[in-house]
Amino acid sequence: MNRHIYWLVLFLTLTGSILEAQVDTAYTAVGMPNVSITHQLYYLEDPSAQLQYTTVQQPEWQSKFVQHKGQYSASFGLTHSDYWFRIVVKNGVAATEKYLEFGYPFLNQLDVYFTDSTGKMQHFLVGDHFPYHQRQTENKNFIFDLYLHPQEVKTIYAHITSDGEVTSFPVRIVDHATLTDDAADEQLVLGFYYGIVVFALFLSFFLGASLKENVNFRYFLYVVSVGIFQFSIDGLSFKYLWPNNVWLANHIIPMAGAAAIFFLIKFTQFLLLTKEHTPLICKTLNVVAGLIVVLFVFAMLPNPFYALSLRALNIMVLVSNLLILIAAIRVYRMDYRPARYFLLAFLLLIVGSTIALLKNIDLLPRTFITEYGIQLGSGIEIIFLAFALSEKVRTLKDEKQAAQESLLRQLEENNRLEHELNVELEKKVIERTLELQQQKELVEEQKSLIEEKHKEITDSINYAERIQKSFMASRQLLAKELASYFLIFQPKDVVSGDFYWAAKLPNGEFVFVIADSTGHGVPGAIMSILNISALEKSIETESNAGKILNATRSTIIERLKKDGSEEGGKDGMDAALFILNPSRTKITYACANNCLWVVRNGVLIELECDNMPVGKHDRDHQSFTTFEFEVQEGDLIYAFTDGLPDQFGGPKGKKYKYAQLKQLLIHAAEWPLQEQEEKILQAFSEWKGSLEQVDDVTLAGIRI
């Protein structure tokens, strides 16, 4: 009995060893077209990314490899870790040529180590970080020739590096016929899918161009983004579009994915009229779209931004899909026709994406449906979105037709009312024509009377101008007494409150006055004649500058008392008066509010002035001061009123002011007097621009 127990124990031990070997080793033979090595796959996580091929072969590291326990392919989710894989393959009794296929085309870096048919160690380095032509077989997946001798046992090591993307490791051993059949299936599905994409692009582009509807162009941009995204997911962009651009190969998927989500949101908002139907969801989608734009930029940057964009984009996809689904259901319940197709299309996309996701995370096997679920769902979604788009166009067309019919009815009603009004108006026109004719005759009569009165007033003002000028200093007197001078005199109206006056005193001296009477226009002109008369009377008895202004003030106050008031009005003038001695070596002057300026060798000297007018004032009991100033040859004396400094203009419509006038006169003093006059008038005109002149302008320059 002990002998039987011994053989039983030996049998069980050998059986266990055989079963363990069967689990650890993948078997292949000539008649086996496809060998799944899901349960024969061992992996080792390398978070530090420091392990080398020579290291993981060591016996102490072999025990650290963990057998893959999943039902389908190995999947590690979003990870930054490196992974090492070990596969042991044993051949049958006959030599066979197979292919080792890694069915995940998005690996950044894949190192594969195994012996070739001669026993020589081979090392292949491929992935998105390397140009496409480095692959042994030009396929979207990573495929390597695997020749096996009879009864040969071959150990294969693979090492993958990730930048934080979803990492999956589907691996199998297949023959050439299986690869050919898979390629045929793929061509069928992808041909169907990209045919739909191209058709949708042409349809949306031409609809958008012909109908001028923004929704068509948003659909166009969405289809373009989805097409680029799916073309990259299928590994075809790297193969056909940018085989040498490894940066774009690594970054295009999150970039195109972000663009697809963004344009899907914008297309949804426009198609479903979310701003009107679901305003809160619309605002939330705007926030999500803004975040997606930020993630699009992050996807173009290196880590940690690239990895952050991958994680955040997955969250944004879930959030945006949930919001869009809720919005579509709500709008569908409002009986909005385009929402029917949109909701169906979106549900199909979610189903296809979910199937692909479950396959990627090892919850579903790699079958035809799971491999191409996202293409099938996306393709059918694009078709139904096109139906939704056409329904939207039909809705817009119906709305336009209804609006046109309503407008036509309104026009017909307007025409009827217009006809009735025309009949009524014709009656009233006949009645009003006679009234208008009578009113026209009355208006013409009044117009003629106004024109006649206007002419009389204009003639009177023009005549008043001649009278006023006859009171002012003659140009002959100024030319005789002042060898070199210029005089600017520009009234605001035809006649002026400003005036210039001069006279020869009995003692041979010459007196010159620039004054600004109270008011402007006709009242100012009358006041100026009164002021000039008072000046003429004062020089009959006075030859001192201050006393001349004192006597003038007394005369003005006395005459204005006759207006009926006890003290008389407070009208008068501001004036600058100076007297030149015959030798022209000095001036005596008196100023009432208006000062004299002298420019000597580029320096402006502001002469003293009494701050009170020539007229009724709180200080009219004080005498005007007589000042003296020694002049030199070449000195320029400037006398002026406040019209130019008070003029509004310039870019901001502000006053010219005295400081700016000082700078102008300092520069002008270098020019000949005639040129000074032209330059000052030009500066005044440019400053005033299109604004109205606010006051009379008078300025005189006299060179000693």
Using brief descriptors, characterize the structure shown:
704 residues; Rhopdopsin 7-helix transmembrane proteins; disordered N terminus; Immunoglobulin-like
List strands and helices in order, with pairings.
Layout: H1 2-24, E1 25-28, E2 34-36, E3 41-46, H2 53-56, H3 59-62, E4 66-67, E5 74-78, E6 82-91, E7 96-102, E8 109-115, E9 121-126, E10 142-148, E11 153-161, E12 166-169, E13 171-174, H4 176-211, H5 214-233, H6 236-240, H7 246-272, H8 274-277, H9 279-299, H10 305-333, H11 338-360, H12 368-371, H13 373-471, H14 475-481, E14 485-490, E15 498-504, E16 510-517, H15 521-538, H16 545-560, E17 572-580, E18 586-592, E19 597-600, E20 603-606, E21 614-615, E22 627-630, E23 636-640, E24 648-649, E25 654-655, H17 658-668, H18 673-688, E26 697-703
Parallel strand pairs: 1-6
Antiparallel strand pairs: 2-13, 3-4, 3-6, 5-12, 6-11, 7-10, 7-13, 8-9, 8-11, 14-26, 15-16, 16-17, 17-18, 17-21, 18-22, 19-20, 19-23, 23-26, 24-25
Helix pairs in contact: 4-5, 4-13, 5-7, 5-13, 7-9, 7-10, 9-10, 10-11, 11-13, 13-15, 15-16
Overall shape: it is elongated
Distance between the termini: 152 Å
Helical fraction equals: 40-55%
Structural class estimated from helices and strands: alpha+beta
Q: Which regions are unreliable across 5 or more consecutive residues at pLDDT < 50?
A: 1-23
CATH class of the largest domain: Alpha Beta
Q: Give the number of domains.
A: 3
Query: What characterizes the major β-sheet?
Result: 7 strands, mixed
